[in-house]
Write a structure and sequence with these properties.
Elements: H1 11-24, E1 28-32, H2 35-46, E2 52-55, H3 60-68, E3 72-75, H4 96-106, E4 111-117, H5 130-142, E5 147-150, H6 154-164, H7 173-182, E6 186-190, E7 201-205, H8 208-221, H9 232-244, H10 248-267, E8 280-284, H11 285-288, H12 298-310, E9 315-317, H13 319-322, E10 324-325, E11 331-332, E12 338-342, H14 350-365, E13 373-377, H15 383-386, E14 388-391
Helix pairs in contact: 1-9, 2-3, 2-8, 6-7, 10-14, 12-14
C-alpha cells in the first residue's frame, strides 16, 4: 500500500536496495521483473560461443539462457546425489573433484562462471552444505573464477545447514545466508521463491565493472536502474518478503509440511528422491512406470494422471525438460525422469496435503494401464513451456 511508483529514485526502491544489500553484502543491485531476466542479462554478457558454465545443476531457464548465448552448461552434482537410499543431508552439493578436473581441462579463461544453486532445484530440491560452498569458493578464488549463487531458495537451504550441519546450530538462518553470500562474487534471485512475492527478481554483484556492463543491458531490456520492470508495490513486497522468509515459524512449517507429503508417498511405495528437500517432493516417474520408455516421457504421463484424476498440477523434470537430440534426431534422455510436486508457500493446509496423498492411491491403482506420450509440437529452447502432446494408444 505504500508503494512509490516514481520512475527514478522511488522510496520503495531504496527500501528494496537496502534489504538486498544488507542480506547479500553486494553493493550493486539490479532489479528485474523476474529471475530469468537477471540470468539473461548476466549470462549473455559472460557467455558466448566457446564459453563454459559449471553448476551443481543448472535450473531450466539458467541452462536455456546460457545455451542461447552459444555457451555450454555442464552439471556436476555430487556423487551422493546418485544414491537414493542414503540419508545424506546435502545431496545438492557440487562434485569438487569434477570441478577441479573441469578447471584443469578447460582452463580459467574458458570458464565464464561457476554457479552454485541453493537449494539444487533441478537436482531434487536438495540443499548445499556450508562446507561444500566454502570449498567451491576456495577453488574459484584459487583459479580466479567468478562464483555466482542462484539464491532463490537460500532461506530453505539455510534451514538445512542449521539443523543438519555441525557448527551451525546456534546461528540464525539469516546469518547462515549471509555467510553463503560472502563466499560468492554475485547472486541471482527469482524472488517468487524465497522472497515470498508474486513477481520480481534481481541481480546483485560485487564487481563495479561487471555491474556497469550489466546495467546497460538492464536499461535496454528491463527499465531504469531503480525499478527494472517492477512496480513500487512489488519492490516493497520483496523488501518485506526477504525479512519474513527467515522467520523460524515460517521455515519450520514449510520444511515439515513438505517432508510430511514426501514421507507419506514413500510409505505407499512411490519412488521419491530421498531425503525430502525443501520446497517440493520429487517423484521418480521412470521407476514408477518402468513400462514407459524415456522417449514416451513417463514424467509427462504422471503429470497428466495427477491432473486428470486429482486436479493436481505438477511439472515434469525429465526428458521433456532436459532431453536433447543427436544428429539423427534421436532422443538423448535426461539422467532421471522426475516429476516435481512444488508446494506453493502459504497456500496449502494440512487437508490439501492429505488430499494429494489420497490421489496417489488412484495413481497406483491405474499404474500398469498408464501409457506414455509423444510430442507433436516443440520449440528449440525451453520446449516444456509450450510443447504439445498426444497420448500413445
Amino acid at each position: 500500500m505504500r508503494g512509490d511508483e516514481s520512475y527514478a529514485g522511488a522510496s520503495s526502491w531504496k527500501r528494496m536496495y537496502q534489504e538486498i544489500h544488507d542480506l547479500t553484502g553486494f553493493e550493486f543491485v539490479l532489479p528485474t521483473h523476474q529471475g530469468r531476466a537477471a540470468e539473461k542479462i548476466l549470462y549473455s554478457h559472460l557467455g558466448g560461443a566457446g564459453k563454459i558454465f559449471i553448476s551443481n545443476t543448472h535450473f531450466d531457464t539458467t541452462r536455456a539462457n546460457i545455451e542461447y548465448s552459444g555457451a555450454t552448461a555442464i552439471d556436476i552434482p555430487c556423487r551422493e546425489s546418485h544414491d537414493n537410499e542414503t540419508d545424506f543431508a546435502f545431496k545438492g552439493n557440487m562434485n569438487l573433484p569434477a570441478l577441479s578436473e573441469l578447471i584443469a581441462k578447460h582452463g580459467a579463461s574458458t570458464i565464464a562462471a561457476v554457479i552454485l544453486t541453493v537449494t539444487n532445484n533441478s537436482g531434487g530440491g536438495q540443499p548445499v552444505s556450508m562446507e561444500n560452498a566454502i570449498q567451491v569458493s576456495a577453488l574459484c578464488k584459487k583459479h580466479h573464477l567468478l562464483l555466482i549463487i542462484d539464491c532463490c531458495r537460500i532461506a530453505e537451504n539455510a534451514y538445512f545447514i542449521k539443523h543438519f550441519e555441525e557448527g551451525n546450530k546456534t546461528k540464525s538462518y539469516r546469518a547462515i545466508a549471509r555467510e553463503l553470500f560472502a563466499l560468492a562474487d554475485g547472486c541471482i534471485m527469482s524472488a517468487k521463491k524465497d522472497a515470498l512475492v508474486n513477481i520480481g527478481g534481481f541481480l546483485a554483484l560485487k564487481n563495479k565493472e561487471l555491474a556497469s556492463a550489466c546495467t546497460s543491458a538492464l536499461i535496454i531490456t528491463e527499465g531504469f536502474t531503480t525499478y527494472g520492470g517492477l512496480a513500487g508495490r512489488d519492490m516493497e513486497a520483496i523488501a518485506q518478503g526477504l525479512k519474513e522468509v527467515f522467520e523460524d515459524d515460517y521455515l519450520t512449517y514449510r520444511i515439515k509440511s513438505t517432508a510430511y507429503l514426501g514421507n507419506a508417498l514413500r510409505k505407499k511405495g512411490i519412488p521419491v528422491i530421498w531425503p525430502i528437500g525443501g520446497h517440493a517432493v520429487y517423484i521418480h516417474a521412470g521407476e514408477l512406470y518402468p513400462h514407459i520408455p524415456a522417449h514416451q516421457y513417463p514424467g509427462q504421463a504422471l503429470v497428466h494422471e495427477l491432473y486428470v484424476r486429482g486436479g493436481i498440477r505438477a511439472v515434469e523434470i525429465g526428458s521433456v525438460m532436459f532431453g536433447k537430440y543427436d544428429e539423427n534426431k534421436k532422443l538423448i534422455p535426461a539422467a532421471r525422469e522426475l516429476v516435481r510436486l512444488a508446494i506453493p508457500r502459504r497456500v496449502y493446509t494440512q487437508s490439501h496435503i492429505d488430499y494429494v496423498i489420497e490421489v496417489f492411491d488412484e495413481i497406483l491403482s491405474h499404474k500398469t494401464q498408464t501409457k506414455g506420450f509423444r510430442i507433436t509440437y516443440e520449440d528449440n529452447f525451453l520446449r516444456h513451456f509450450t510443447a504439445h502432446f498426444e497420448p500413445i494408444a
